[in-house]
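To fix ideas, we reproduce below one chain and its tokenised fold.
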Amino acid sequence: MPSANKTPNINLSQWAGNEYVKRQDFCDDNLIIDREVGELKTNLGNKEALTTSNKDSLVDAVNELDKDVGDITTLTTTKKDNLVNAMNEIKALADKNKTDLGDTNTEVGKLKATYAEVTLISSNWSEQTYSLESTYPSNTYDIEIELSGNATKDIAKVWGKTIPVPSPDRKNIIKALGTVPTVNIPIRVKVVKK
């Protein structure tokens, strides 16, 4: 007869003085222990995949990170009982902000990028340069340019011969490394407010 008393966590036998131990009881307990250890190994993951230099024990790995983690009570989150709850709170806030902002296409620390279709008028080139400063002042905006998806094959050939690059002084001025175009060129401008 198996033990009437069991351990609270994984239900191992706890024989009382009036109970008889059977070999099958040990076999059953060993299966319980093996199953629990297997679940722990699965849930903990592979410690070799740790990015810490200490991989021989989780305690050593946690101690290595402890200096970077800091004091949990100084978290600015309302959840201070454990890091998982704090991280979940931050993720929920980030998800809410992402939903509020929509598809941001942002760079870290900058506002939402916008895109504009602009035409480079052939007569507005000044020697090898074309300025977008009046529309996008460089002290306020960073821009990136590319040929518009609406450009024809002939325009694409002109673009390829022009080889437009940002001006060395980093203003929002385009410099033609090749031939200055004699036709209007549609471009797509990515604009990020500084």
